[in-house]
Amino acid sequence: MQPASAAREFDIQGRLVNIDIVGQGNVNDTYQAVFRAGGSVKRMILQRINKNVFEHPNWIMDNMRYITDHVLKKFSNEPDDKTREWGIPKIITHNGADFMIDEDGNFWRAMTMIDDANSYAKVRNVEHAYEVGIVLGCFHRTVSDLSCDKLHDTLPGFHVTPHYLTKYDKTLDGNYDKERMESVPDVKRLIRFINNRRNIVNLLENALQDGELQTRIIHGDPKVDNIMIDNFTGYGIGIIDLDTVKPGLLHYDFGDALRSACNPAGEDETDLDSVFFDTNLCSSFVEGYMAQAIDFITEADRYYLFDAIHLITFELGLRFFQDYLAGDKYFKVRFEGHNLNRAKVQFKLCESIAANEKAIREIINT
Ligand code: GN1
Ligand code: MG
Fold first, then answer.
1. What's the CA gap between 180 and 186, in Å, rounded?
2. Which among 157, 233, 242, 258 would be 20 to 30 A from 135, CA to CA?
3. Which stretches does DSSP call E strand in 22-87?
4. Start and end residues for every CATH 3.90.1200.10 domain found in the chain
C-alpha cells in the first residue's frame, strides 16, 4: 500500500493534503502526513516498520502503549517546573487498534507530532548538549518506577556488544562481499582496529552478570536526532523513536547519547579529521543528565559510565562495518561505501574518547 493510502486508514480527522518523507532513519520508513479539516491542520507521523529488523512489530506497539500511557500520566501529575513543557508521541489508532497491516503484509503505525519543535542530526552547541542530557535523564527518571517485566524484548541481543562481535566474526568466516573485502584498502586497517579491542566487549555484560549493574527500562536509541527541541525556547521537550525501548543497561543509553551529542561533525561526516569527542559538550550533557538522574543513579552505575561511552561507540562502528562487509543488509545506505564511512567515523570517535579518558572520568565523577 502507498504511504498516502496508509495514512488515510488511521483515526485522524480531515482530508489528507500532503505527505512527505521525514528524518534520516537508518531502519524504518518515516513520513509526515498533513490533514486539513476546515481551517485547522493536523500533522501525524506515519511509519512502515522494517520487518527484516523487527521480527514482531506488534511488540513495539505493546511497549509503546505501556510506556506512553505511563509517561503521560506521570507528566500530568508532576508539579509544573515553570520552565518547560514535556511531551511524548501519542499513538494514533486504526479502527481502534494500535497498528495496521496492509494487504501486502506491511506493518504501519501512526503517532502524533510534537508541534513547533525540531530534532537535529548534529549537536549545535553546549546548550543543545545540555538539553539532550536533560531529556534523556527525564526519560529515565519517568520510567524508573516501571517494572521491566511487562516489556517485550523487541530486538534480542540489541546492544549486547559480544553478540555483535560474534555476528561480525561469522561474516568474516565467509558471509562477506568478496569485492569489498579484497579491493578496499581500509578494510584491513579496520579489521586490525577491531582485533585490538576484542578484550573490551564483555565489560558491561560481565558487570551485569556479576550483579554490579541491573537491567532497567532503556530507550535504546537516544541519539541527538531523537531529542525534540522547542523552536521557541530552545529547551528539550521529549524523546521520540520508541521502537527500541526495552529492558537493558542504562549505560547503553548514556553512552549512545554522548557518542552522538559530543561529535559535532555528525555520523555521516566524510572528513575524518573533523571527527572528535568534544569534552565541553560532554560536560554540558552530563550536567543536564545528572540533574534529572540524581535519585536513581548509583555509585556502581557511575563507575561504568566512561566504559559505556567508549564501548557503545565501538559497538556502533562494529555494527556499521559488519553490515558493510555483509553487503548493506541492515542499515539503509545512501551511497556506495556509506556504512564503511559510518564505521570509520565511530572508530575515530572511539580513539578520541580513549585519548580523553581522564577528562571524561573527571566530568562524570564531579
Ligand atoms: C539506527 O533507524 P535509526 O536511525 O533510528 C539503529 C540504532 C543506531 C542508529 C545510528 C533499530 O537507528 O541502533 O544507533 O541507527 N537502530 C536500530 O544512527 O538498529
Ligand atoms: Mg531508532
1. 10
2. 157
3. 29-37, 40-48
4. 117-366
Query: What is this structure's pTM?
Result: 0.95
- Mean of the per-residue pLDDT values for the chain? 96
DSSP output for 241-289? -GGG-EEE-HHHHHHHHHHHHT-TT-TT-S-GGG----HHHHHHHHHHH
Beta-carbon count within 10 A of 232 CB = 8
**Which residue in 248, 364, 347 sits closest to 304, CA to CA?**
364
The protein residue whose alpha carbon is closest to atom 5 in ligand 1 is 25
Q: Whose CA is nearest to atom 17 of ligand 1?
A: 27
Q: What is the pLDDT of residues 168-209, one digit of tens each?
A: 999 999 888 999 998 898 999 999 999 999 999 999 999 999
CATH T-level topology, domain 117-366:
Aminoglycoside 3'-phosphotransferase; Chain: A, domain 2 (3.90.1200)
Q: Which atom of ligand 1 is nearest to the CA of 332?
A: 2
